[in-house]
Design a protein that fits this description.
Shape: globular
Radius of gyration: 24 Å
CATH class of the largest domain: Alpha Beta
Number of helices: 13
Length: 439
């Protein structure tokens, strides 16, 4: 059977990742390598045919001397094709591959939001998916790990899309040659100091024995279907059994955990911890399994800590999952507008006098919580741990702003004239959101 041209297959793949606007505006993370350049050109062709456009975003981590010139070259290539481009520079004292990866996604997301773009495309291919599955096999991953990278991931006010997971690197390079487009080979991709580089060389040897990238990607699709089914079951159970409070904590009766398969109960606990803790990665599975056994056997005692959360007995035999106060370290300099704080709350600061002046920060209410709870207002009805982990507006050691969740605290005046700002619990991990996408 004759395969469709790359352009047509790409259009079909991207279309399955919608919906998009009538005139789609897309951002593409483009390093100058063959995968990301092919993605950028294909996305530009797709968007232009629909009256839209593409913004190319290149991150210079300042980790290699040649990176700055490579970013300039990418900008030249895209300008020759009439495409918008921006270089994002990471210049931080914290160095290393993991830190650079976190910074890359933060810079990309901030740039896309600043430009009003809702969709950020990433150039991971079938080869990358195969390497991911292989690495997770070595780590004894379960279904979730073997499902590999999702084609769609929801970020804060942006969607990460991977439309090239069904494309091999070799065919994309052939397509680029047909377009007369050169690319840049990053030497770090072959550096054995990096885990993925080592697995890339191992994958080449395994392919000669029949364990191909296509086969490993097929494993990811099948594991993805199983993960999607489990996600659906967990979402249904969590919606019935767990309550998410607007102050950012979860309460539940432990008895329903006895009536569902252990896998569903453990996943629901993990999802609740991820929602409240706001961590970048899920809590360790072994820890969640031990927590489940303790709750099931009614041996939770005074409670446990896991994944940035405190899991403790509450009134009426219920269980409360709350953010661990000592783990809330996020401090954001402020200006009027919206801020995503601690990966949990969307804080909106008004255009009030003094907002934006030096020294103002959004930090946890912390030790000021007990004084607020004594006031008899809304704060007194929340667990003390919850109040301590809510955002406050600070100027040095002075609490000068409170979330509207605590606006009725009667002794707020003891902190001076407190500004009240809107606060919405907007966790990075939904309790019962969309399942794992399989496309």
């Amino acid at each position: 059977m004759t395969r469709l041209p790359v352009d047509e297959r790409f259009a079909a793949a991207l279309g399955r990742l919608g919906p998009f606007e009538d005139r789609p505006r897309l951002a593409v993370a483009v390093s100058g390598g063959s995968d990301s350049l092919a993605l950028t050109l294909l996305a530009d062709r797709w968007a232009r045919s629909r009256g839209g456009s593409v913004l190319g975003l290149t991150v210079d981590h300042r980790l290699r001397p040649a990176a700055a010139e490579e970013a300039v070259q990418v900008a030249r290539w895209l300008a020759m094709r009439g495409m918008d481009h921006e270089t994002l520079v990471w210049d931080a004292p914290q160095r290393g591959h993991a830190a650079a990866r976190r910074a890359r996604y933060r810079l990309l997301e901030e740039a896309a939001r600043r430009r009003g773009v809702l969709h950020l495309l990433l150039g991971h291919t079938r080869d990358d998916q195969a390497e991911t599955v292989l690495m997770r096999l070595v780590r004894n991953s379960g279904v979730d790990g073997l499902a590999g990278m999702p084609a769609v991931r929801e970020g804060f006010a942006i969607r990460y899309l991977r439309p090239l997971l069904g494309f091999g690197r070799a065919e994309l390079r052939e397509w680029l040659r047909d377009q007369g487009q050169d690319w840049i080979d990053d030497p770090s991709n072959e550096d054995p100091r990096y885990t993925r580089s080592r697995f890339r060389s191992v994958g080449t040897a395994l392919a000669a024995e029949g364990l191909t990238a296509a086969g490993l990607a097929g494993t990811a699709r099948r594991a993805g279907r199983a993960r999607a089914a489990l996600d659906h079951a967990v979402a249904e159970f969590a919606a019935r059994a767990m309550v998410v409070a607007p102050e950012g904590w979860v309460g539940f009766d432990p008895r329903p955990l006895d009536g569902v398969p252990e896998e569903i109960a453990i996943r629901a606990l993990s999802r609740a911890i991820g929602l409240v803790g706001g961590a970048e990665h899920p809590a360790a599975l072994e820890g969640v399994e031990r927590l489940f056994v303790a709750i099931r056997d009614r041996r939770l005692g005074a409670g446990r800590t896991l994944g940035g959360c405190r899991i403790v007995p509450a009134r009426g035999g219920r269980i409360a999952v709350m953010r661990e106060p000592g783990r809330v370290t996020d401090a954001l300099p402020v200006r009027p507008g919206r801020h995503w704080w601690d990966r949990r709350f969307l804080v909106t600061l008004p255009e009030a006098d003094g907002i934006g002046r030096p020294g103002l920060e959004i930090r946890a209410i912390g030790a000021a919580g007990p004084r607020l709870r004594k006031g008899g207002g809304p704060a007194s009805s929340f667990p003390a741990t919850v109040v301590a982990t809510l955002p406050g507006l600070w100027c040095g050691d002075d609490l000068v702003g409170l979330p509207d969740l605590l606006a009725g605290a009667e002794d707020a005046g003891s902190f001076g004239e407190c500004l009240v700002f809107r606060t919405v619990f907007t966790p990075v991990v939904p309790l019962a959101g969309a399942g794992f996408p399989v496309v």
